[in-house]
Amino acid sequence: MELEGMGVDPFMQHLSDYVEHIVGIKVTNPALEKLRDHLYGTESCFAQPDAWERIFSSPGAVFELAGLLTVNETYFFRESAHFSLLLREFLPIFSTLGRPVRICSAATSIGCEAYSIAMVVDYYNRTAAAPVSGTIEAFDLSQAVIKVAQEGRYNGNAFREDGAQWRAVLDRYVSPSADTFIVDPDLREKVSFYPYNIMDGLPAGAYDLIFFRNAFIYFTPESRIAVLDTLAKALSPGGFLVMGISEIAAVEHPLLANCYKENAFYFQKQAALKVEKIVAPFGTGTKDPPPTPELGQRPKPQYRKIALTIEPERIAELIADDEDLWPMAETILALLRTETPSADMGNTLITAAITLMSREDFSRADAVLSCIERYDTSAYTHFLRGEYFYHNNRFKDAEYYYKASIHEDTAFWPAFYRVSALRAKESKVQYAYHIKQAIESINRGKDRCYEAFIGGFSPDYYQRTLEKQLTKLDE
Ligand SMILES: C[S@@+](CC[C@H](N)C(=O)[O-])C[C@H]1O[C@@H](n2cnc3c(N)ncnc32)[C@H](O)[C@@H]1O
């Protein structure tokens, strides 16, 4: 974009921003130049400044143009440990579910990944007492790679050393044909390929297993947050997400638990994050977070009515106006011993919890918080429970609740801020990633008076602090 001696080319900058917005990926300069040349060839972008925006507003055109923008590198049984994971961990679990499963190879490229999955499923089913039934879907942004995938014809580049241990399985389903290799028609039938942009979202709770590998790295930091959220929500409770080896470190989502088996990292959707908190009985807030439930043993949700009114603006006012909050907190505690709070006491209860915590009276803060938790599962309550653990040096537990808070409200920047602080000892890349997430969340939630929950300093103050940390990391 930066042409020597000419500064930034505004057209290319605009095009880059626009493409990023639509497809989520950071496009390289050579790819952008190809796109620009292509667009100039089809319509006069100078004569009609919005011509290319019109072109991009059709999904079909985006799928056509994606071939100019994306990196489609792939091969059979790439990162082979993931297929051992499928064979030895996921499929035995799926075969106990007693229902068809839905598997997705997202950003599949020319289909080697999806066919490798189909081969392992078929191979497993040949000897399994309870075979796994269901569907395998595969999509990619680029129409061109989807056509190759549907045809199932590959050259030698699709077979590499990594994955060679699966050669015996591969040979069952792929045969030489002239100077290429063709996937067995019966196996081709088992995968349905279609063009799709993951930025358009995925159906909620639809998939038991998603492979989304070696694509995440190309997405911008902002899009990564959205894509991860899409993936987490698209999994069924207890479902599995497999990402590329180089991408694991950047994955952070309150619904996704880190797992490791068969020499591979993967993620499992936590089935009961909300439920665990909602049913926590009075005074049990200090318990360790419960373990992730296994598939097939999901607890029945027992939602309580959420009744408390909580308004950050009002809480900020209460904290600012009240000369001495201490008597108010005392009154609340006395009242809670005998009475059930009413809905309109939400702001007072939260203010009392903040006050008690700021005075380091943690046992009474715990009592108030536990009461709030019986009626409310908002970002505010989760955050305050996180604060409770944070100030008691129980950082793992704190992070668990901060993430729950983030899950409820992606603009609740105090939770992002704390998570970034908890990640300060990690690698530079990870720490920087969390700082950037925190800065983005401040921009989303600047005007919502959330500072009342974290010391009362302005969001700008926290933003400057984070930016300083980022600068230090770059030095
Ligand atoms: C390097 S390939 C990865 C292929 C395969 N998953 C693997 O690990 O071998 C990355 C793929 O992501 C696809 N992609 C990029 N942005 C996408 C988007 N917004 N929606 C769907 N696919 C996308 C690209 O077209 C490309 O084929």
Helix percent reads: 40-55%
Q: Could you tell me the radius of gyration in angstroms?
A: 26 Å
Biggest sheet, in brief? 7 strands, mixed
Structural class: alpha/beta
Question: What is the rounded distance between the termini?
Answer: 25 Å
Sheet-strand content, in percent, reads: 5-15%
Bound molecules: S-adenosylmethionine
Oligomer: single chain
Strand order of the largest sheet: 8-4-3-9-10-12-11
**Tally of contiguous helical segments:** 20
Indicate the CATH architecture of the largest domain. 3-Layer(aba) Sandwich
Structural features:
475 residues; alpha/beta; Rossmann fold; Serine Threonine Protein Phosphatase 5, Tetratricopeptide repeat; 3 domains; seven-stranded mixed beta sheet; three-stranded antiparallel beta sheet; 50% helix; 12% strand; disordered N terminus; binds S-adenosylmethionine
Topology:
Blueprint: E1 2-3, E2 7-8, H1 10-23, H2 29-42, H3 51-56, H4 59-69, H5 81-94, E3 101-106, H6 112-127, E4 134-140, H7 143-151, E5 153-154, H8 167-173, E6 174-177, E7 180-183, H9 185-189, E8 191-195, E9 207-212, H10 221-234, E10 235-243, E11 256-261, E12 264-269, H11 273-278, H12 312-321, H13 325-338, H14 346-358, H15 362-375, H16 379-391, H17 395-408, H18 413-422, H19 428-445, H20 459-474
The site of S-adenosylmethionine has 26 residues, from loops.
